[in-house]
Amino acid sequence: MSHINKEQKNQTLEDLLGLNVPADRIVIGAVDANPKAVQSTLAPVNWKKYAVAGATDTALLTEQQVELVENVQKSESVDKETNSKYVDIIATVLAAEKHNDAIKECLLALESALQYNNTVAASVLTDSAMNKLCSAFTYLMGIVSSINSPTPEGAEADPAFAKKDSTRSLIIRLAGFVCGVSAVCDRESLSEETKEAKEKLCKVFLEFVIATFASVSKDHVDEEESLLVMHALSMFLRCKENRMTALHKDVLKILSRLFDLCATNAVQFEYLLLLCIWLFSFVPEAAPLFRVKQYNLVTELAHSLNTYDSEKVIRVVVAIVQNLIKHPALTEELISCGAIRKLNLLNQRVFKDKDISETLKVVIDVLNANYDVLTSFDLYVKELASGVLRRGPRHTDDFWKENVRAFEFEDFKYLKELIALLASADAETVCVACGDIGAFAVFYPNGRKIVAQFHGKEKVMALMVSENAEVVDAALSACSRLLIQNWEKVEKK
Q1: Which of 258, 254, 229 is nearest to 168 (CA)?
Q2: Counting CB atoms within 10 angstroms of each CB, which of 91, 150, 351, 381 has the fewest?
Q3: Closest CA to 89 of 51, 54, 57
């Protein structure tokens, strides 16, 4: 599991991921700032054997390289240049090695050298090393992905690659990290061969992630596996290019399904799930997907505002909302989901992390500034004239309580237009119109008779046999309001 050093506690999420600053400082597994000797229960790798040429093959390493590796693993710290050479040597062996014990030792050494730190990785990974690592992890992820299938040619069947084994966990985490390194690496500096190798690794890794979460359900949740893969995915998504690829593969939709699993998983899973969604929130192309009903992301996020107790989880939820309010349509939807009230309740808490309170204030101010505008009757009239209605703050009971008298204009002109939209070919328009008609019936004196007078009641009732299930539900809800006289009492019950 990841943790943040004490001196990092006041850093922003962007800081911690290295998105907007020269360095990120996420540290996984309590790895120290400088590479140290690898600690392992396995017998150390005999690096010298790689400097001995075989009958037909040349030696994999030089004696000088072997000496460098041995010196690094004995040292408390090394300089950047030495660490770069060390990583290249590890990559060379990892790309050629097929024995599991040696693979694990190489992975542990690589983990210690790179520290899951983008800045460190970007400073020490050469084009050659990146190429070798991508090739090696493509091979290893292929084994991991097909563990329940016949063993790939050239691979050794071994429990080390089965679930719950540390070698497999190392492969998945490091593969995700290597894929995401280009978040701070200049991709243009990579050779075409290395770019191709990285693309292959990203493809294999993403297919594995998709397959893992596609099989997850409420009745079948492997919590440890879900946490591991989500952790690796959060590192994969550090790279903007990877986010676009994942977006096109419907990964955001897959993540939206996993909110239901948070109740059975640890706080760390909740955090990593939201962290991945936060990374997607930086992508403009992802903004419309946050509104898609099947994803239900805005609603889930609004709900989560008062659900989570962990500060780090709250922090990332608020950070997501901060990104979403940059898009008017999402701002409108957040308001309609009652986000202002929930944020105000959250703002009453005292947080150790002052950044949360500061971000909350910014978000609340933006939403409040937009509330009066988005709930104005003039905007409702414009929307009505467009012939297209969309769910939002102008279609809530609060809006109707404040503006219902405005519908008296020109013998209920706007109500008549609203009723006419029940014949729209757009399902969402029909659903919203049903809801608005039901609200008018409840909040306007004698509203039910007026709706019936303009044939609104019979048109709504006719929609109860629609082929569209959402339209049927909306019509049923509206009819209940049109038929029940003491609606306020029903609501209180």
Answers
A1: 229
A2: 150
A3: 51
pLDDT block averages, 10 residues each, the chain of length 493: 34 45 28 34 72 74 92 87 94 88 90 89 91 95 72 50 79 94 62 92 95 79 85 93 94 89 69 93 92 83 81 91 91 85 90 90 91 82 92 87 92 96 95 96 94 95 95 95 66 47
- What is the spatial distance between Cα 155 and Cα 167, in angstroms, rounded to a whole number? 15
What tokens appear for 44 in the block? 């150390």
Q: What is the spatial distance between Cα 281 and Cα 417, in angstroms, rounded to a whole number?
A: 37
Q: Are 393 and 374 in contact (CB under 8 A)?
A: yes
What distance in Å separates the CA atoms of residue 125 and residue 198, rounded to the nearest whole number?
13
Structure tokens at 385: 């004239």
Q: For residue 57, which phi and psi values (nearest 5 degrees)?
A: -105, 155
> How many CA atoms lie within 13 Å of 418's alpha carbon, on the beta-carbon side?
26
- Of 459, 456, 428, give the one whose Cα is nearest residue 440: 456
Task: Output the pTM of the full model.
Answer: 0.74
As beta bridge partners, residue 217 has 220
Of 238, 252, 144, the residue nearest 182 (C-alpha): 238
